[in-house]
Design goal:
Blueprint lengths: L18 H6 L1 E9 H8 L4 H10 L2 E4 L8 E9 H22 L11 E8 L3 H5 L4 H10 L2 E4 L9 E8 L1 H17 L13 H6 L10 H4 L26 H5 L15 E8 H8 L4 H10 L2 E4 L9 E8 L1 H24 L4
Helix pairs in contact: 2-4, 3-4, 4-7, 6-7, 12-13
């Protein structure tokens, strides 16, 4: 059994993990950084990021520069204790490096610097807690200020949680956030990772109705996993499932007629958006199934108090990729339509 799997007591309730078990649990935690911030994190000839790895034992890297894109993604993978320490070092480095970067409005004279963490939309409820109690507790314990953005980032199921505080406060907050993610790791599977480059490739214009080829050709460029595969240079965007995932999800993966592994991904869709994705008489969802070749099933009822419904997508990596893209294209188009509709 992996360190991230919940153990159940005789009464069927999960046994709480000890602090030591949390400390050693493996996790991947990503953050969005600007190009200038990325420069400070990497350092001259990669010195800063190398020192960070040596000091904390984590694997850390920043996504490549993409022309015309100002955001890059910092990925930190390792034991939770190392990840929390790594974000403390990053926050301190950004604080010290801010004046030299000429980062304008981002400089705070009160010894704090914001870190924009990327959190799976499906796991956000665990961090916010019922009526916001958990996020308040994390802020109280660490002394940071946290703001969770409501919208998912384009073409992904990730949202930003901005953490503003001292480097020590950020370390404590990341430790608490990490504990939530470990407890709720099951719901992180199938996360569609945000990739800043996708914005450029799909173009900034209005979304097309049919999901034309130009938008889909970018499918290969973004990794989608909660398991740290950002570090692999493999061309396929899906790594093989980790044992912890496979063990908890019977039946085992089968293959398509072409010998490709069949994979399953879950995404949550707000209830008020489900109708626009299904379409009149199921026309839109039928079209997405046909066009992508993936099977898509929709939960009849919301899966928790957020009122969101679970969509389960099953198929080859390429089919799932296409189905996810088409689902998001429909979502974005509906959001745009609603934002432009005259208010009642």
């Amino acid at each position: 059994m992996s360190s991230n799997e919940a153990r159940l007591g005789p009464d069927g309730e999960p046994i709480p993990r000890t602090e030591e078990e949390y400390a050693q649990s493996q996790l991947t935690l990503r953050a969005i950084v600007s190009s200038k911030e990325a420069g400070v994190i990497i350092g001259k000839a990669g010195k800063n990021v190398a020192d960070l790895r040596d000091e904390t034992g984590v694997r850390a890297g920043v996504s490549k520069v993409v022309p015309g894109v100002h955001d890059r993604v910092l990925t930190v993978n390792g034991a939770l204790t190392g990840i929390a320490k790594a974000y403390q070092i990053v926050a301190k480095g950004l604080l010290d490096g801010a004046p030299a970067m000429g980062m304008g409005g981002l400089i705070n004279t009160n010894g704090t610097h914001p870190v924009r963490l990327l959190i799976s939309h499906n796991q956000m409820g665990t961090i916010i807690g019922r009526q916001g109690l958990k996020i308040k507790q994390i802020q109280d314990v660490s002394g940071v200020r946290m703001v969770a953005q409501k919208e998912m980032l384009p073409q992904s199921t990730e949202r930003i949680v901005e953490v503003q505080g001292t480097p020590e406060g950020i370390e404590k907050a990341v430790w608490e956030i990490g504990k939530c993610l470990i407890d709720d790791s099951e719901r992180g599977y199938g996360t569609v990772l945000y990739n800043p480059a996708v914005r450029v490739q799909t173009g900034a214009g209005p979304l097309s109705n049919g999901g034309g080829g130009a938008g889909l050709s970018m499918g290969r460029s973004y990794n989608r996993t909660g398991h740290g595969a950002d570090f692999s240079d493999a061309p396929a965007p899906y790594p093989r499932r980790s044992t912890s995932d496979a063990a908890s999800r019977p039946p085992p993966p089968t293959t398509t007629e072409d010998g490709e592994e069949i994979q399953t991904q879950n995404i949550s869709i707000p209830s008020d958006m489900v109708g626009c994705i299904i379409g009149r008489g199921g026309s839109k969802i039928s079209e997405i199934r046909k066009s992508s070749g993936a099977r898509i099933s929709i939960a009849k009822a919301p899966h928790d108090e957020s009122g969101e419904r679970m969509f389960t997508i099953t198929g080859s990596a390429a089919s799932n990729e296409k189905a996810l893209y088409l689902l998001y294209e429909n979502l974005e188009a509906e959001k745009m339509r609603r934002s432009q509709a005259p208010q009642e």
